[in-house]
Amino acid sequence: IVEYGCNLAPHDRNIEVSCLRNNIPHLQTVATPSGNAISLMNGIATVRHVSLKDHPEIQSLIVQYR
After folding, report:
1. Which residues pair with 47 in a beta bridge?
2. CA distance 48 to 41
3. Number of domains in the chain
4. Which of 47, 58, 62 is nearest to 13 (CA)?
5. pLDDT of residue 66
6. Which of 5, 12, 38, 39 could disulfide-pair with 30, CB 3.0 to 4.6 Å?
7. Residues in CB range of 31: below 8 A, 6 or more apart
8. Residue-number span of the structural domain to which 57 is assigned
9. How far apart are CA 38 and CA 50, in angstroms?
10. pLDDT band at 9 (very low <50, low <70, confident <90, very high)
11. Domain of life here (predicted)?
């Protein structure tokens, strides 16, 4: 499992996650530091928008993929 972490600015509440054919073939979850996981659709060349407007306590994300 490879992890990619990114910090969120206070105004950056919409996160775009791309599943790229060569780089991230199977994106599993977007996990928050508190341990909560937001499941994403598995697939190739798909894009999902994860809205965090209702979760101001989330300050960073860890994207895990296999």
Report:
1. 18
2. 8
3. 1
4. 58
5. 46
6. 38
7. 37, 38, 61, 62, 63, 64
8. 2-65
9. 8
10. low
11. Bacteria
3-state secondary structure of 31: strand
The CA distance from 8 to 60, in Å, is 5
Half-sphere exposure of 14 (CA within 13 A, CB side): 3
pLDDT value of position 19: 39
> What six digits make up the tokens of 43?
């697939």
52 Cβ neighbours under 8 A, 6+ residues apart: 8, 13, 14, 15, 58
CB atoms near residue 61 (< 10 Å): 19
Note the pTM of the prediction, 2 decimals. Answer: 0.31
Residues with Cβ within 8 Å of 26's Cβ and at least 6 positions away in sequence, in order, are 19, 42, 65, 66
pLDDT tens digits, 22-66: 344 445 555 555 555 555 544 322 334 455 666 666 665 655 544
